[in-house]
Amino acid sequence: MFIAAGLVIPLIKTIYQSFRNRDNTENAGLVNYRQIFSDDNSFNLDGWRDFFTSRLFWIGVAVVGLGLVLGVIGGRRTRQSFERSESTTIPVLLGFFLIACAVLSTVRGTIFNNIWWVVVVTTLATAIGLAVAVLADRARGENLAKSLIFLPMAISFVGAGIIWRFMYIARPPSDEQTGVMNSLWVWLGQISTSTASTAIAVIILAAAGVGLALLIRRGVAMKQGSLAGTSAGLLIIVAYLIYRFLGPGLGGFSTNEAGETSPQTVLFPQETPFNNMWLMVILIWIQTGFAMVILSAAIKAVPTELTEAAKVDGATESQVFWRVTLPQIVPTIGVVVTTLIVTVMKVFDIVKVTTNGNFDTQVIANEMFTSAFGESNEGLGAALAVILFLSVLPVMYINIRRMQRARA
After folding, report:
1. Per-domain boundaries in the chain
2. How far is CA 146 from CA 6, 325, 342, 393, in A?
3. Could you tell me the pTM of the whole model?
4. CATH architecture designation of domain 34-42+109-157+272-408
């Protein structure tokens, strides 16, 4: 009775209304659905060729290629055609993630924005939550660290959106910046325009680069692919920062024809196409704590006999995680991923508070609200609600099937 009153009846009414006109006075057939998929603001593939010119796309291709090369080299060493390990899996997954972001940043529209949200937020929230859960496991200060990371879960989406809107705010360049992000950006620009500050920054980064190079050497010597790979990735970032400080500069500043420099701010929620990414950061900040708590519980539930046996056989900490712990918690990762997908697909509050869907940041839930209540187009709003329901239905089905198999 509860399911019928709370789900089935409203669903049937919404589906029926999606085939009605804006005033709900007569049948409209598939007009509302045709309007959604023919509107460039909802579904626009005109810019799909641009992702071939995107630097992010080619960086992703290079990272995937690096992972494949490492796999082939490792396979020759172990007399296999291809070695599947953390040193090959991480670059390949990271590369495909970058390629997906490059593609979704060139195709425009509400539907693609939702897909972009699902890919980025689900991937990063799960990955960061897993990393924190692993690194903090049985470490000193574990409870404090996890409490701080979980804290944003207590904040509503509206509250989080307001907090980050203040962090992203940009004041006139001549005024003192009050937003954290632009204050940091302008500060980096001031360092770039000061010879002494640039020299100090380069020396510090060079020292960090030397330390990372030593970690790479240690990881290779101890056959710890994750240590070597992570250090190599950080070393590339450090090298890029050194190049920016010594070359074109880094941070918020502009130079006029007379050679004079002045501060320059960034309109994070407004500047397309990666303004969507800055909005996603808000939801990642919130949901990382959820992923961390669930995955931490799963890691602690892994039998210690398995990990101890692996260590006795000579496995390193990295090998224990990738080959013993991770396979044990794969079902839990699946639960976290599917839960996050459902949460992200219906994201509304964050977009409503920060941009209200302007600047190419519109998502299905916010467009549904705007169409149904702002423009009084009940038919179009209902059609968007049906599309949103159909998009999460496969994920809900997968979750239900997983729970049924677990009970069996």
Report:
1. 34-42+109-157+272-408, 45-107, 182-262
2. 36, 20, 24, 32
3. 0.88
4. Orthogonal Bundle (1.10)
